[in-house]
Q: What sequence folds into this?
């Protein structure tokens, strides 16, 4: 007959609490003890019982969290581990929200996040596909990446990343939706696909303000903004909200398309927003059989636009069947078909994105009140 072990002592329980508390919650990116998620840790015959308080029952990855807690709790002297998950109290959820709100934001002084606004003059040039694949390529290279789908009327990020779920809301803080190791926020997560978004200036600005300030992004390395085409309210709002933004222009080889993209660049210049470079999309058609590339349009407008702006032509992305198939399937081609011509070029562009040092312009500087008399 199996003999049950003795109860663990108080010192062992303290070590269990410390080990479990040091775990980092993947979505909230804080230690469990910082978030008040570690509840009762008690001894049972031959092992321990650990209670974890969840700030939201919709928090993703709960099974993985249970496994991580179970593994961490097996310190020396502990046999079996029983993990129980309980909803957090209302006051506890409020404390978690305060902790997240106190974390550095995208427009906080000292933030090292590189912000690229992917823009075009006209719609239909593949701007969103470029954005999605750049984000996925950067994330695959180990960077912490976020995407704001700022094309409110023509949002496509949910489709391109193959995710359809509402963000987790926690006392005034939203958690971005995660897909393919990229943090995402889009109006498409809040409305039905068949429902048109009929918003005007003030509503657009408020939505973008919430996407920047009320979403817990954590410490990102790169944030990509998928802008609507043209020079309307949305680009101007984001320039105000994110003073360190750089413009990434997407055009086709057509002169007419590049000319309109040039107007977007002029708007950026007037607003003192640097242009990081130009990506020429649909430069050619790749042959599935022989691998040859045939120009899709006459002209070399991408290079001409980059030259006139004094910025690099970052890449020429061909049209290939795998790029469009992956977009329809909701998986970035750089992950699903990394060897396809378009994916190779987009990965190269992601690896060579230029950067610039953040400035203090447009930022709110902290004020300190000194108690010393003058």
A:
């Amino acid at each position: 007959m199996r003999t049950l072990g003795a109860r663990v002592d108080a010192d062992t329980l303290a070590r269990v609490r410390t080990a479990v508390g040091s775990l980092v919650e993947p979505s909230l990116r804080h230690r469990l003890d910082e978030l008040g998620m570690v509840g009762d840790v008690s001894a049972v015959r031959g092992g321990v019982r650990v209670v974890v308080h969840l700030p939201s029952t919709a928090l993703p990855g709960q099974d993985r969290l249970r496994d991580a807690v179970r593994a961490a709790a097996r310190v020396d002297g502990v046999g079996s581990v029983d993990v129980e998950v309980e909803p957090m109290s209302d006051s506890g959820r409020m404390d978690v929200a305060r902790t997240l709100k106190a974390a550095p934001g995208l427009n906080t002084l000292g933030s090292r996040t590189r912000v690229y606004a992917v823009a075009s003059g006209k719609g239909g040039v593949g701007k969103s596909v470029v954005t999605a694949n750049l984000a996925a390529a950067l994330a695959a290279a180990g960077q912490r990446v976020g995407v704001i789908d700022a094309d409110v009327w023509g949002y496509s990020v949910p489709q391109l990343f193959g995710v359809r779920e509402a963000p987790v809301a926690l006392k005034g803080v939203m958690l971005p939706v995660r897909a393919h190791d990229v943090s995402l926020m889009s109006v498409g997560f809040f409305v039905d696909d068949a429902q048109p978004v009929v918003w005007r200036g003030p509503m657009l600005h408020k939505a973008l303000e919430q996407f920047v300030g009320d979403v817990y992004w954590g410490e990102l390395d790169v944030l990509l903004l998928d802008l609507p085409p043209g020079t309307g309210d949305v680009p101007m709002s984001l320039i105000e909200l994110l003073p360190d933004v750089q413009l990434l222009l997407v055009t086709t080889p057509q002169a007419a398309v590049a000319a309109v993209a040039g107007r977007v660049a002029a708007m950026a210049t007037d607003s003192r927003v640097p242009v990081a470079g130009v990506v020429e999309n649909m430069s050619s058609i790749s042959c599935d059989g022989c691998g040859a590339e045939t120009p899709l349009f006459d002209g070399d407008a991408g290079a001409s636009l980059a030259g006139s702006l004094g910025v690099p032509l970052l890449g020429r992305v061909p049209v290939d069947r795998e790029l469009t198939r992956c977009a329809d399937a909701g998986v970035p081609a750089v992950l699903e078909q990394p060897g396809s011509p378009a994916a190779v070029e987009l990965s190269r562009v992601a690896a060579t994105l230029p950067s610039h040092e953040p400035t203090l312009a447009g930022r709110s500087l902290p004020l300190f009140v000194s108690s010393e008399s003058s």
Remarks:
- The CA atoms of residues 68 and 253 lie 51 Å apart.
- Residues 255-270 form the longest helix (16 residues).
